[in-house]
Queue: 3 jobs
Job 1
Amino acid sequence: MASLRKKGDAYYVRWREHGRQREKKVGAKRLAEKLRTEIEARVLRGELVGATGGQKITFAQLVETWREDHAHNLAVTTRARYEDILENHLLPAFGETLLPHLLTKDIEAWKKARAQAVRPSTVNSEIILLKSLLNRAAEWNLLQKSPAKNVSKVRNQAQPYRFLTLAQVHAVLNAAQGQMRGYIAVGCYCGLRKSELHRLKWSDIDLDLAELRVRERKGGRGAIIPMNDHLVQILRAHPRHIRSPFVFHGAKGDRGLANSGRPWTDRRAAFEKALAAAGLPNMRIHDMRHTYVTCLIRAGTDLRVVQDLADHKDIRTTMRYAHLVDEDRREGVQRLSDRSSSG
């Protein structure tokens, strides 16, 4: 593949062609990156001597080139989400497949299997990335057309908001073990998204000031979130890794020594185990965020403050939770009436 380096005020693109090292000086970085992309596309098509033929490119090789050329242009949150999708789902499914052998029916079969395992919005996020990668392959003439072109998204039926009461939060925290206790506490008491939870570092937490910093949220902004006394107490007792900066980290016995200290990716099974231990029904990890918002509203927090704490761009999103709480109150009052009539 081609490499890019800067020397003085100029950029240099270096690659091998006909068995010899080639280098070209380019003034602007943008033009140098464009040239490198063009050269790597020629390498992938097998146009340069010693390169793999166009018919022998695997999906994994396509991903590697895409990472080199485009990953650095993505926001931190987007890059982390894409890497999670690639490493845990797309590469295990298609990594060793030669691009010309990747058929629409294979993608449809994979989509069907994924739709049975996870929610539609998760599958659709993976489909979007897969389509983007294969469209890039078509642009580079590695494929005549993308086999994912006519693959449709999974129909996403609106899911009802699920959330815990404060008493249920306390119950699951008492039942949770190890790092999962801190994970649930931060999720329910600070309302972090899953990606924010997994990227959280100890340098983002000030236990003395009872504050937690989110470096980059969904819209690219940062935020400082106050922590309650219970959360501070739980985090003071939270198990730390001797070398890892991450609050929620892999341990030695967790999928091998190589994962030790790395940030968490998917902890759905352990999360559901904690819910079951507390005698609570299954819910999604994201529902801890719903719990945070509804608990704030139930406590009488001003909706504008809730909107800011929850990082809602639109107050109407916050209002949906307020309506849920209102409906909950009405049902409670109605139950009083039902008991009166039965007595």
Job 2
Amino acid sequence: MAASRRRRVLVVDDEPRMIHFIRLNLEHDGFEVVETTSGTKALDKLRDQLPDLILLDVMMPDLDGFETLRLIREISTVPVIMLTAKGEEDDRVRGLELGADDYVTKPFSPNELIARVRALLRRTAPHAAGEPALQYGPIVLDAGSHTVSIGGDTARLTAKEFLLLQYLMQRPGRVLGRETLLADVWGYQYPGETRTVDVHVRRLREKIPYLSRALVTVQQFGYKLLEQAPADRD
């Protein structure tokens, strides 16, 4: 039987020492690493050979991480983890708004980096073909093909937006706390980082307007997808 393909990670950072540090740890853990030092070159590599995941630094000279991420999201839903400066909450929130799936703050430990990468890849891995689609009102989510449609039109979601919507659709009527969503959807502990959930919920509502009525905020706790799907007024 042929050996399984190693998961490919594209590392985008303009600091050679940081790239070397990340490469050593990812390769030690069995990943294939592709590297580049600029956002422009990252887009070229993305078009040439799609990676399984991208590690993207924010501070780069020619094309910063935010603009690179915006351009990535125009052509791909590949999972993206942003590398941000320690304590820069605005950078983290901005990255999430633009479609990042996760972030790691510098400096970070090798164990944290590998844990984040593995958790995101595990949750975005293709599901087995034939898994029944989920439906809620006009929304149809097909885990097998990793697609979401609303009344026949396709919604372009990031990996984490897809997983959050899937989690909610599997639990209509249940009030879900932000900490629960962080632990179960993101697969990692985020002490105090509940804005991550809020940003993703806001993006879901923007991309799927139907959710502005169906996905309600439970004050000071979290969110709930109404047990009974509202009538579609569109």
Job 3
Amino acid sequence: MGLEVRDHGDTPAQVWRPDRESPRAQNVSEVVAGLELLIERIDPILASGDTMLVVGGNCLIALAVVVGLRRLGAGTPGLLYVDRHYDMNTPQSTNDGALDWMGLAHGLALPGAVDAVVAALGEPPSSSRSRWAGSA
């Protein structure tokens, strides 16, 4: 199709593990480090004007892409979010503790979101509540 494809490589794999010290917001430091690394890697790719495809298994990855688009200054980014869950929980509203199942709540900086995750996403909210239409 005439497209040039470049693989910019993987970020280090993060394996979820039980976090008994923070059972309602597990592995916070690893989650934040992964977000910061991905945002750092996304910035130069987006700045080059290339089309980017990000593949991952953690719902917070979508928010890192939104942060990268916002930093680019190309207007308000849109996000089509398709997930099995709404991801609107915070550690205060669920006892599951898996932060990647709380992505939209942190992107919107909802009350009860983990400050370190919200801070990693930059100036909150990284998404506008008025533009959020839901998820499938």
